[in-house]
Automatic annotation (TrEMBL):
Cellular localisation: Golgi apparatus; Secreted
Main location: Golgi
Name of protein: N-acetylglucosamine-1-phosphotransferase subunit gamma
Function: Non-catalytic subunit of the N-acetylglucosamine-1-phosphotransferase complex, an enzyme that catalyzes the formation of mannose 6-phosphate (M6P) markers on high mannose type oligosaccharides in the Golgi apparatus. Binds and presents the high mannose glycans of the acceptor to the catalytic alpha and beta subunits (GNPTAB). Enhances the rate of N-acetylglucosamine-1-phosphate transfer to the oligosaccharides of acid hydrolase acceptors.
Occurrences of domain DMAP1-binding (ranges): 119-218
PANTHER family, per the entry: N-ACETYLGLUCOSAMINE-1-PHOSPHOTRANSFERASE SUBUNIT GAMMA (PTHR12630:SF6), N-LINKED OLIGOSACCHARIDE PROCESSING (PTHR12630)
Residue ranges of every copy of the MRH domain listed in the record: 12-114
Pfam families given in the database record: PRKCSH (PF07915)
Residues of the signal peptide: none
Annotated organism of origin: Pampusana beccarii (Western bronze ground-dove)
Length: 218
């Protein structure tokens, strides 16, 4: 459960909306489901998305993404839940703007205050400081607007508000590996440790009579 703390009180609750023969249920920070209310033998009942990440625009939380729902043709169903000001907590509208991608409108008094969905106050002091520094860099024209947006995206990912893309994860891992072996001395030390570990494992395999095929390359 990440995001504005005052929205955490919605966790553990579910809100439903009936349209035609379908009943939609939204459980904040959990999932979105759809149940076909007919007597057909193959009536659909399934998951339209599981809580995944926030949608952030202009440094403001605007919606919740529910992804990795039931399979639909070649992809998974997903839902974007828009948060709008309302007199009570209720699921007000459901649509399917494109195949297997749903759009829900959730009304709540919890987002009526103009500052209720600001991202900055939800961050740790360290991430707020990082944001402040990027603002200064942008002001001093030391980074471009694109560079500023990239830093913000990294901050949101670090805070867990956005999920890092697979490419970003690979980049991070590669960066980590390159830093680990930045000197020949460090590389030699790691190599020695790994060699000793391999010898121990070879010994264990021999002890239990398990065949082992070594790599002839150094």
């Amino acid at each position: 459960v990440l995001g504005p703390a005052h929205l955490f009180r919605l966790a553990g609750k579910c809100f439903s909306f009936v349209e035609s023969t379908y009943k939609y249920e939204f459980c904040p920070f959990h999932n979105v489901t759809q149940h076909e209310q007919t007597f057909r033998w193959n009536a659909y009942s399934g998951i339209l998305g599981i809580w995944h990440e926030w949608e952030i625009e202009n440094n403001t939380f605007v919606g919740m993404w529910m992804r990795e729902g039931d399979s639909c043709e070649t992809k998974s169903r997903q839902t974007k839940v828009h948060l709008v000001c309302g007199k009570s907590n209720k699921l007000a509208y459901v649509s399917e703007p494109s195949t297997c991608v749903y759009s829900l409108t959730f009304e709540t008094p919890l987002v009526c205050h103009p500052h209720s969905l600001l991202v900055y106050p939800t961050l740790t002091e360290a991430l707020q400081r990082k944001w402040d520094e990027s603002e200064q860099l942008l002001y001093d024209e030391l980074i471009t607007d694109q560079g500023y947006k990239k830093i913000l995206k990294e901050i949101f990912e670090e805070a867990g508000l956005l999920k890092a893309t697979e490419e970003m994860e690979v980049e991070k891992q590669n960066k980590k590996i390159s830093l680990e072996f930045e000197t020949v001395e460090k590389c030699s030390k790691e190599y020695k440790q790994l060699s000793e570990e391999i010898k121990k494992l070879q010994g264990l395999l021999s002890q239990y009579g398990i065949a082992y095929k070594g790599n002839s390359g150094e």
